[in-house]
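How it folds
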Amino acid sequence: MDISINASFLPQDDPEAALAFYRDLLGFEVRKDVGYAGMRWLTVGPPGQPGTSIVLHPPGVDPGITDDERQLISEMMAKGTYAGILLATPDLTATFDALQAGDAEIVQEPTDQPYGVRDCAVRDPAGNMIRIQEAQ
């Protein structure tokens, strides 16, 4: 089989804050910006990697989700426990310094992990956990 990752999904509850983080701070390209029924879906991705994207979507809009489930999703997003993604960079120190200078919410400074990677963690404006590891 020949399978690749095309897109991952993360919720966002403020499209402009999401753009400021993913486009302006991380340097991702905006691939799509789609509005529908007062909501907005953004697709972003790293330059030079057109086949890999992150879809930033309004939380809890999937059919069949109850009001109680929407409330739970909102609560988990506020705590930063609902969603996350792992990114990689060749220069973790420079990336972390840029995130810190850009007022990203720092969760963990660059650390050598016992499982063999060096990484850091921040939260995006919606509370999603963004772990960034140094590429080997």
